[in-house]
Structures are given as structure tokens and as C-alpha cells.
Write a structure and sequence with these properties.
single chain; alpha+beta; 5-stranded antiparallel sheet; 4-stranded antiparallel sheet; signal
């Protein structure tokens, strides 16, 4: 009986050790949502401006405009580092969502941000027109 109890404890300890060492040191691979504020005097939250969401399984990135405020919503995503940052504009107006099916290698670090802005229409400067003080913070995860 003692041998059985020791074996069970050893097995539990080994499982816990494997779980503890098998987690990502970078992030947890969970979906993330960030919100951009529509009102100059409001801290960004779920019912203002717009939002960006990354679904890590399948790498689906959505940018949704939540407010009839005359601004576009921008989803910014960095894939694997700051040098691979992309700006996706949703110019469809309130209640519209832009959906992108990305192809990102599993385990790659991802950070996302949501912003409000005024589209300038220049593909060479995709950040032109972003109202930076109305952006969310960065949210980090893994593909």
C-alpha cells in the first residue's frame, strides 16, 4: 500500500513539474481583446470606440468599430517582434468588423493594440491619421 501511495505521489509531482516547465516563458497562447476609447475624456473600455481581437487558434484577427464617432478603428499587430508590425484599418463604420485570417507559426509571440483614427489613404504610411492618445495598451500572447 505504501508503495502504491509513493508511486501516486511521484506521478503527481512529475505531472506538476512537466506542466510548470512546459509553459511558455513569453505568454500563454490565449485569445486577447483590446479596446480603444472614443471619447477624449474616457479611459478606453469595452463600450467605447473600437476593439481588436486575436483568436490564437487559427490566427483570426478582427477589428470592430463600436461607436458612431466619425473615426475608423485600427487593429495593430506585431508578429514576432516590433519589425513585423502591421496596421489594419476598419473603415466600414459603426458595428462593422474587419476579419483577417493570418498565417502565423505556432508559438510565435504576438502583441496587439486597438486605436481610433482618421484614414489618410496613404499605403506608404499606414499609421498616418492614428489618434495615438485614444489607443489601448498592448496585449501579448502566442500564436
Amino acid at each position: 500500500m505504501r508503495l502504491l501511495a509513493r508511486s501516486a505521489l511521484a506521478g503527481t509531482a512529475a505531472t506538476l513539474l512537466a506542466l510548470a516547465t512546459g509553459t511558455s516563458a513569453h505568454a500563454d497562447g490565449l485569445d486577447r481583446t483590446v479596446w480603444a476609447g472614443a471619447d477624449w475624456n474616457v479611459t478606453p473600455h469595452a463600450d467605447s470606440g473600437g476593439k481588436a481581437h486575436i483568436q490564437t487558434y487559427g490566427e483570426i484577427f478582427t477589428i470592430t468599430d463600436l461607436a458612431k464617432d466619425g473615426h475608423s478603428t485600427i487593429g495593430i499587430i506585431s508578429i514576432g517582434g516590433e519589425s513585423n508590425t502591421y496596421y489594419y484599418w476598419n473603415r466600414g463604420g459603426v458595428d462593422s468588423t474587419r476579419t483577417l485570417n493570418l498565417d502565423i507559426k505556432e508559438g510565435t509571440p504576438i502583441t496587439i493594440k486597438a486605436c481610433i483614427g482618421d484614414w489618410k489613404g496613404n499605403p506608404d504610411t499606414p499609421a498616418a491619421g492614428i489618434i495615438w492618445e485614444k489607443c489601448s495598451g498592448w496585449a501579448q500572447t502566442d500564436a
